[in-house]
Amino acid sequence: MYDVRAIRSMYPHPMPARCLHLTERGYCVGGAIQCYVDRKEVPFGGAFPSPHTLSAVLRRANPRLNRFEARTLAGQITSANDTGEFDRAWDRAKEALSLHYEVELPESVSPAQPASEKTVESPSADLPDSSG
């Protein structure tokens, strides 16, 4: 699981995309996540992934997210970043990277037995026959 604190410490100064003209290598919160997950430096021209691209990055970082969750959280991260609400963007990023990790999955899950192999007791097995 990725730790947002580590990402945030490596990329402490996100900016809205509209401020990219201030620097050649700016990044937003989503761009910081993308660079961290992809293990790349912030490219010349900046790192400002679209919500669609960011949702794919979030799913690579947290495969437990479904597409709807990833898309929703990517939109929330992007929206908060674009309005300068970086703490909120980082909070959504933390949620995206940690969602569904509170329940550990077993290493190997045995497949369910087919219905024909299951032994199921009938609830009426212990009841007296009322057919007369």
Which key features would you list for this structure?
132 residues, 43% helix, mainly alpha
Describe the model.
With 132 residues, the chain is mainly α. The chain has five helices and no strands.
How many angstroms separate the termini? Answer: 64 Å
Largest sheet, described in full? none
Specify the overall morphology.
Answer: globular
The percent range for helix content is 40-55%
The average pLDDT score comes to 84
State the assembly state of the protein chains. single chain
User: What's the alpha carbon Rg, rounded to whole Å?
Assistant: 23 Å
Number of strands: 0
Low-confidence sequence ranges: 109-125
SS element count, helices: 5
Derived structural class? mainly alpha
Q: Which percent range describes the beta-strand content?
A: under 5%
| String of helices and strands | HHHHH
